[in-house]
Amino acid sequence: MTQSKRRRVIAGNWKMFKTQAETRAFFAAFNPSVAGVTDCDIVIAPPSINIPAAAAATKGTHIAISSQNHYWEKEGAFTGEISAGMVVEAGCRYAIIGHSERRHIFGETNEMVFKKTKSALAAGLTPIVCIGEMLADRQAGRTENICQTQFQGSVGALTPEEFSRILVAYEPVWAIGTGHTATPEIAAAVHGFVRQCAAEMFSAGHAAAIRILYGGSVKPDNIQGLMAQVEIDGVLVGGASLDPKSFATIVKDWQR
Ligand code: PEP
């Protein structure tokens, strides 16, 4: 594929970190340092309870807020859950879905990820649908098989129009929070494979347009190598997104 025209996305996933006060302090430091950045989409996913604080702290900026998880029903007797409509009302524009921690700690299946993706789209959110193999899968040569099964099961039954509104994040589980980043070449090869799956599932046009982010120990010192790959349309950053200075460096330095 030649030089991509796909707009880059730099997204941060805070997981279960930061209080409301820490959320405000983060944006007070982060917002001015990325105020001049217009060449990529910037997204931050705080814990659900801090979405309103994050939305208020980013009002009037081009930083978008994402949920980390939601339930697919609109409302009902689902104690502890929140709906896609609720996170939109609280200020989200994106929804992370099927993160490996959701899949492997909380038992989310591809079918659940599909339902969450559908409901996010219906609420007007941009889903960031995560897929990725575990270390044992990679070592057994099953990376493509796992990614294809997760991709097909999570988004294969969307309509073509719905598929054109999602982002995908390839996050090899062995690289998340471990300090072991996939090399740019390894990540790009899987992205190319996922794009090929998208062509088979939908169309060549859909495959060329879909934005595929890489996630797994992205840091200021490896962002440029990853983003130099035409197949890598952005990153989903965990640990390094918690520090305003380091996340601002990732946002600003990806194409230097
Ligand atoms: C993540 O949580 O999606 C992630 C990639 O984490 P880290 O950057 O810390 O590996």
How would you sum up this structure, described in words?
The chain has one domain (8-253): TIM Barrel, CATH 3.20.20. It is 43% helix and 16% strand. The longest helix has 18 residues, at 184-201. It has twelve helices and eight strands. It is an alpha/beta fold. It has helices at residues 20-34, 51-57, 84-90, 100-105, 110-122, 135-139, 143-155, 160-163, 184-201, 204-209, 223-227, 244-253; strands spanning 8-13, 40-45, 63-67, 94-97, 126-131, 167-170, 211-215, 234-237. Phosphoenolpyruvate is lined by residues 13, 15, 171, 176-177, 215-218, 236-240.
Write the layout of secondary structure elements.
Elements: E1 8-13, H1 20-34, E2 40-45, H2 51-57, E3 63-67, H3 84-90, E4 94-97, H4 100-105, H5 110-122, E5 126-131, H6 135-139, H7 143-155, H8 160-163, E6 167-170, H9 184-201, H10 204-209, E7 211-215, H11 223-227, E8 234-237, H12 244-253
Parallel strand pairs: 1-2, 1-8, 2-3, 3-4, 4-5, 5-6, 6-7, 7-8
Helix pairs in contact: 1-12, 5-7, 7-9
The structure holds phosphoenolpyruvate (PEP).
User: Based on DSSP secondary structure assignment, what is the total number of beta strands?
Assistant: 8
* Top-tier CATH class: Alpha Beta
Rg over alpha carbons:
17 Å
The CATH superfamily name is Aldolase class I
Report the biggest beta sheet as strand number plus sense, adding barrel if it closes: 8 strands, parallel, barrel
CATH T-level fold name: TIM Barrel
Fraction in helix = 40-55%
Keywords:
256 residues; 12 helices; single chain; TIM Barrel; globular; binds phosphoenolpyruvate; alpha/beta; 8-stranded parallel beta barrel
